[in-house]
Automatic annotation (TrEMBL):
Record organism: Flavobacterium collinsii
Family of the protein in this entry: Belongs to the universal stress protein A family.
Ranges for domain UspA: 1-147
Ranges in coiled-coil conformation: none
Signal peptide interval: none
Pfam families according to UniProt: Usp
Protein name, as recorded: Usp domain-containing protein
């Protein structure tokens, strides 16, 4: 059985993402590991010589009580969606979120991370938010990022961006496996710029290799890569967009602030970030 790590701060955005995590767990037959982290403030022991330890103990106890009170609320959401058969485990850790997330991924042998983002439909905030971008760049398992106002709906079309590199095939196969379980179609996009280095023979090879899969390959000529990707999302009714990251600057270039302001139609869909293998 696969394992999904779901970091939560019990905010509205996180609770919305929890629904996606439940539904995704059902699709890939996974159990959920809920992770809540908290930072203990640093105190100088010379000013609190007698109650130094009790200060830390009281903070930890308060966090534990809050954590304990929030869990039944999430279990109620699972029951309401008839997904209470999904195994849900918990981790409460003190310290830095990204450090603990990486630690949990390693120790619990996590296959996916699913997390809510604080930036609503603004993709700039979405990708450049400190926690989201840190997780994307440092956690080496697929990360499904859920915008705060992206309500769950059945996944019918999964978008997949590629540059037709040989290593992209492995990630495409992973996406096709997910698509099969939800009866979704995969639409693969390559934006062919005027200085492209991908020969037609490579594109034909991919068409032949994946001929028996439920995938449609789109090659769109344009030097406006960012606009083309967003048009693809909007006009192909993409429910989840898959991207393969190799540099954090990739996101910064696509979703820079000046560009995001040009978006006239709201884009608010989950983004599945795969890592180069």
């Amino acid at each position: 059985m696969k394992k999904i790590l779901f970091p939560t701060d019990f905010s509205e955005a996180a609770t919305n993402a929890f629904v996606h995590a439940l539904e995704f767990a059902k699709i890939v037959n996974a159990e959920l590991v809920l992770l809540h982290t908290f930072e203990i403030p640093v105190y100088d022991s010379q000013f609190f010589p007698e109650n130094y330890a009790s200060i830390y103990s009281s903070i930890e106890l308060a966090k534990f009580e809050m954590f304990k009170d929030e869990i039944p609320k999430l279990r109620t959401i699972a029951a309401e969606r008839k997904l209470d058969n999904i195994v849900i485990k918990h981790r409460l850790m003190d310290g830095d979120l990204v450090f603990n997330l990486k630690k949990a991924v390693e120790e619990d042998h996590i296959d996916f991370v699913i997390m809510g983002t604080s930036g609503v439909s603004d993709w700039t905030k979405f990708f450049l938010g400190s926690n989201t971008s840190s997780v994307i760049s440092e956690v080496k398992v697929p990360v499904l990022c859920i915008p705060a106002d992206a309500k769950f709906k059945k996944i019918k079309i999964i978008g997949f961006t590629t540059r037709y590199r040989e290593k992209d095939k492995a990630e495409l196969r992973k996406v096709l496996e997910i698509a099969r379980k939800t009866n979704a179609k995969v639409k693969s996009l390559y934006v062919r710029t005027s200085n492209t280095d991908v020969p037609d023979t490579t594109i034909k090879e991919w068409d032949k290799e994946f001929a028996n899969e439920n995938v449609e390959f789109l090659v769109l000529p344009s030097d406006e890569v960012k606009e083309t990707i967003l048009d693809f999302v909007l006009y192909k009714d993409v429910d989840v967009l898959t991207v393969i990251t190799h540099k954090k600057s990739f996101f910064e270039s696509i979703f820079e602030s000046s560009f995001s302001k040009k978006i006239t139609k709201e884009v608010s869909i989950p983004v599945l970030v795969m890592h180069e293998t």
